[in-house]
Amino acid sequence: MALRRQDIERRDFPIARRGYDPDAVDAHLRSLADRLDEQGATAASLAGAASEQVRAIVTAAEASAAEIRAAADEEAQSHLARVEEAAKAMLQRVDEMEGDLGKLVETLREGAGRLASDLAQVRGSMGELQAAEAADKGPTVEPAAQEAAAAGQPDDSEGARLIALNMALNGTPREETDRYLEENFQLADRAALLDEVYARVG
Question: Average per-residue pLDDT in the chain?
Answer without folding.
Answer: 79
